[in-house]
C-alpha cells in the first residue's frame, strides 16, 4: 500500500550538501541542523513581552528616536495628545464644506434620537440633548477617528438605565437618580482614560465578534420591546428588561391600556422610517432620506398633534424640555459614600458595553489613544450634566456617508444642538412619545445582524454558540447578565482550544518531501515503519496529558493498521512540531513520559521543526540530551530520510 | 544581500509533475493543490468534539463494540466499574507476599502520620486513624492504581482545618466541628464522584505544574511552621496559617512559652528522621529505614517519656486515643441548613487541593475513573467517621518501593490499623506531641521541591512567576487564597498566549525549499520582492487585531530594509499558516482587513499550508474567492516559486 517512489526527483537538493558537512554527527539531509535562537537576557525578554503586550510589538519611542531636535519631539508629543494639531494645520474650506453638510445631517438624526435614548436611561429629555452638545466639542480635539459621531447610544442608555434603577427609583427620587447617573458617567470616563493611558485597552478584547453580534441582537430586541410602551400608549409598564416581563406587561394592558390614536401615529411613521431606510440602503445616493426622516417625522407628527390636540385623546407627548445649555453638574457627583462605589461599578459596566460596540465596526484605530479621548470626553460630560456618550455607529455611518472630512463635523453637530437647546426646545412640547418610540425601533432594528449570525453559523459552530448564548442571556435575563455570558463563553472557547488541541497523522504526498494531514489530503501515503504525528497547539499544562495520550493512541492505531498490511515493525515516531509554538514545564514533562512509554515498545522519538521557544526550553530542560541531538530534524521529510531511508528510496 | 542560488538542486521534484496537471489553474509546483478535508455533518462534528473533550478522542464504546456476546459485555462493564475483578483473578501468593510486606511498611509510616495530620485538621487523633482503616478498604475495589496508598494527607488536612475553623471553633464546639468535617467529607466525595462520572475531571487540569510546585512549597512551609507549636512546646498558638501571624506567635512565646525538654526530644528525633531519610534516598535498598523511622521514633520517644515521666515537666503528650473501630457517622452529617452549604464549599476546596497533589506525580491513569473511586471512598468514609482521605504520595512512594504488587497492600495496611485501633491505642498515651511534629516536619520538607523550582526558572520565566505567585500567596495569606492565585495565574498565562502570539519573518535556507524563522536560523536569506511572515497561534478574536497590526508592521519594516538594499518593490506577502491551527470569524475578519490594507499598497496576499480547520472556514466565509484560489499554496517554497520564480532561480 505505501506508494513510495524511487525517481530521482524526491532526492532533495541537500543530499550532496549533507555529504560536505557530514563531519558533524547531527547534520541533516538538507545540510542544516536545527538552530537555536540567540540567547536573550532576562531584561530583553521582559521588555520584549511588555512591548508585545502593550505596544503591539512596536517600540513606543521609535518616532521620538527618529527625531533629532527636542523642539520637534515636543511638537510630536503635543500632536500625539491632540491629533487636532495635525489635521487642523491642513484644514481647508473644501473640507469644511464636507464637514458642514455631514454635521447638519447627523444633527437632524441625533436630536430626536437623543430625546428617545434619554428615556431609555430614565433621564429627562434635555440631558440627552446635552450629551450631543459638550462631548462632540471635546472629542475632535483628542480623538483620532474622522467618522465617529459622538453622543448617547441606545444600548449604553438601556444598560445605564437598567443598572441605575436597580439602585434608585427614577420616579421617586429623580434628583438622586440624576446624581448617580453623573457619578457613573464621571467614573466611566476616568476608567476609560486610565485604561487608555496604561494601554490596557486590550482587556476588552476578550469579547469575541460572535458574542458581540449575539449581544447586540438581543439588546436590540429588548430595546424595541421596551418601545412598545410608547408605541402602544401603555401607561403602566414593567421596569424589567427581560422578554418575559415585557410581554406580560403588554398583554396585561391589551384590554384597556392600548391607545389607538397612538398606535396609528406610531405605526404610520414607523412605516415611513422603514421605507426611507430601505431606500437609503438600496440607493446610496439617497441616504439623506433615511438620515433626515427622523427629524421630518418629528416635525410632521408634532404639527399633527398640535392641530388635532391628540394629546387630549390619550396620546402621550414629550411636554417640557428645559431650555438653555448644559448646567454645571460637578457638585452633583457623589465623590464619597456608597453611591460613589455603585456609580463606579455602573460606569465600568456601561463603558464595557460601549466599547463592545465601538469594536464592532472597524472603528479601532489606535484603541488606547481613542479610549483616552473618550474618557476625557465623558469626564467633561459628567461635569456638564451629560450622561455617558460614545461613538454611536448608526450616526457615524451617516456621518461618513454624508461626506465628513474631519472630526470637525462633530463640532457642527454640536452647534446645531446648541441652537436647538437655546431656541427650539419649546417646539418639542407636542411631540408625541410614540414618534420617539418609532424612531428608536427603526434605529435598533438595524442592530439585529441576522446575516452575520447566519454567516457565523456557517463558518464556526462554536462561535455561533457564543453568539446564541449572549443573545439568549440578554433577551431572557438582563443586559449585564448577557454581557457576562458573552465574556464567559468567549473565554471558555479559548480555554477549550488550549485543552483539547487537534492531533493528526501525517503522510507523504507521493513524489515530494512534503508531509500532510491524512484527513485533509486523501492522496498521501503512510511511510512503513514510521508513524508521523502532528499536534495542533502549544503544549501546555492544560493539554500536556491529553497530547501524550492522543499521540500514544494514534501510534497504537497506526501500528495496528500497519501490522495488518504486513509492514515492518514501527521503529520511529516523528512528531511534527511546526504548530507547537510553545511548551511549558508540564509539556516537557509529558514529552519525557512519552519517551519513557516509547522506550518500552522500542520506538524512538524524533522531533521535526521545533520553533525558537520550543527548542530553547527543550535545551534548558535537557530534553535534547535525553532523546539525542540527532533526533531533532529540520523537517519531517529530513526525519524520514534520515531514519527510514529505505522507505523513501523505494521498498 | 539576498543570496538566492541557481544550482539545479532546489528545483523541487514536483516541477515536472506540475506540468502534467497544469490543466487546472491552481496546480502548484509540487503537483498538488491545497486540499479540503471531507465535510463532516453537524452531528459528526459534535460527537467528535464530545469525544475529544471527554474521552481523549477515543470511542468510549470501542471495547464493547469489539465484544460479540452480551455476557462478555456485561462482564466487561463490571470489570470497568470494579477493576478488582480483573486483577483479582490473577492474584497469586507471590503477589500477596509483596503486598503484605508493602502493607506492613506503609502501616508503620501511616499510623504516626495519621495522628499528626488529624491535629492539622483540629480533629481528635482517632479520626486520623479511622481514615487509614475504611478508605483503604474501599479503594482497592474501585481504583485503578497499584501504588496509591490511601489515607489522610498533610496539605488536605491543613486546608480542611483552616477552612473549618473559620466557621466553627474546634475547642468551643468540638461536636459541631466534627459534624461539619464529616459534612465536608461527604460532599467532597459526592463532588469527586460526580466529576468523575460526568468525565469532568479535566476541569482540574487548569492548574499548571509550576503553580502546583509553588503551592506545595508554600503549604509545606506553612505546615512546618505550624508544627513549631509542638516542636517548641508552645501552649498559646495562633489559628492563622500565614507566616507573619505564626512567626509573631513564636517570638511572643520565646521568653517563657518554650519547653527545653520538648525541644530536646523533638530536635533529636527530627535529626534521626532526616538522617534515615537521607540514607533511604541515597541507597534505595535501605528505603525501609526511612519508612520505619517514624514508628521507631514514636515507640522510643513514648517509652522514654513513660520512664522519665517527662509529661510532668511540660512535655505535652497525645493522652487518650479512643479505642475501637470507626463509629457510624451518617447521623452527624448536615443534610440541610447553612452548614450543609458550607460543608459543601469546604469539601470542594479541599478536594481541589487533594487532586492537585494527585496530579503531581504521574498518578494520573484514568483520571475520571480514579475520581469516581476516590469519591465513593470519601462518601463511605464520611459515613464512618473519617475525614477526607486521598492518595498521599509520600506513602505511595514507600508503597511502591516496598514492592507492592496490587492495590491489596492497602487492605493489609487497613488491617494493621484495625488491630491498632482495637488493641494498641492505649500505648500512645505517653507519645509526646513533639515527636508527631518532628514526623510531620520531616514529611513535608520533602514537598519543598526547590530543584523543580530552579528548573522551572531556567526553562520558563513566566511559569516561574506562576510558581512564585502561588508560593507567596500560600505563605503570606492562606491556603485557599494561594490556590486561587495559582489558578488565576495559570489561566492568565493561557489567555496571554492567545492574546499576543509570536510573529516572525521567514527566510530561505540557501539551496533548499525550506523557509525558517530568521531569528532562529541566522543562515537564511530573504527573498527579494517577497515578505514571508509566520503567525504562531490560532487567529482568534483575542489576537485578530494584534496579528493584523503585527503583520503590517513586519511588512513595513521589511519593505524599508529591502528598499535600502535596492531590492525590487514588494509584491507578495506570504503568510505561513502551519502554526495557525484554527481561525474564527474575528480572525477571518482581520484577514479581510489585512487584504484591504494590502490592496492599497499593491501587495498580494498568499497563504501557505492552511490546515483543515482553517481552509474549511476560509471557504465557508468565501475568503478564498476574495484572494483567489491560486493564492493558497501547499508550502512557502511553492508560493515563492509560483509568485517570485525569478528570485529563486537566481537574480
UniProtKB/TrEMBL annotation, chains A, B:
InterPro entries (alphabetical): S04_transporter_CS (IPR018045), SLC26A/SulP_dom (IPR011547), SLC26A/SulP_fam (IPR001902), STAS_dom (IPR002645), STAS_dom_sf (IPR036513)
SUPFAM superfamilies: SpoIIaa-like (SSF52091)
Region span, Disordered: 1-21
Key word Phosphoprotein present: no
Biological process, per Gene Ontology: transmembrane transport
GO MF assignments: secondary active sulfate transmembrane transporter activity; transmembrane transporter activity
Keywords linked to the UniProt accession: Membrane, Transmembrane, Transmembrane helix, Transport
Membrane topology: Multi-pass membrane protein
Keyword Membrane: yes
Every STAS domain range: 520-643
GO cellular component, one term: plasma membrane
TM helices/strands, residue ranges: 180-200, 206-225, 258-280, 286-307, 411-428, 434-452, 464-492
Cross-referenced PROSITE patterns: SLC26A (PS01130), STAS (PS50801)
Localization annotation: Membrane
PANTHER family in the record: SULFATE TRANSPORTER
Protein name: STAS domain-containing protein
